[in-house]
Design a protein that fits this description.
alpha+beta
Length: about 150
């Protein structure tokens, strides 16, 4: 098996970095339209989770912080996220019916619906890191290994 050389790896990293947009200025971030603050954010989040959790009726969902306006710069595998962010800790049942342990999730709400989320689903491994940082920005220190 042939191992890629350092030049190939460096070129691939450069190409990936070139795909990312330049960060927004403070003025551009301030001008983002977050829409009105969602007064019914818990209902909006629960509706969003109802089709994404293994057993939504039995999942333990704790609202920890938000909603607050939050902007996340573009990351390697994610586009820019912004909206009224809500930090959650979720403990859902797994396929065997046992609780799998709490993990953080941050959802972004605009115009009465969830437009983005970090921390759940197939991207949970990478998304949990984003969710922990975003929860911290919202005022909640999400534990490294559940709660």
């Amino acid at each position: 098996m042939r191992v890629p050389g350092a030049a190939t790896v460096a070129l691939a990293a450069l190409l990936l970095a070139a795909c990312q947009s330049a960060p927004l200025t403070r003025e551009a971030i301030a001008a983002l339209d977050y829409g009105p603050r969602p007064e019914d954010h818990e209902r909006i989040v629960r509706e969003y989770l109802s089709t994404r959790l293994q057993e939504p009726r039995f999942a333990l969902v704790e609202f920890k912080a938000g909603p607050k306006p939050l902007y996340q710069k573009e990351a390697l595998l994610q586009e820019r996220q912004y909206g009224w962010a809500v930090c959650l800790m979720i403990n859902d049942k797994n396929q065997r019916g046992a609780y799998g342990g709490f993990y953080p999730m941050v959802v972004y709400i605009r115009d009465g619906k969830v437009v983005a989320a970090n921390g759940g689903g197939l991207e949970r491994a990478a998304g949990v890191r984003y969710a922990q940082a975003q929860c911290r920005a919202l005022g909640y220190e999400a534990p490294e290994n559940g709660r």
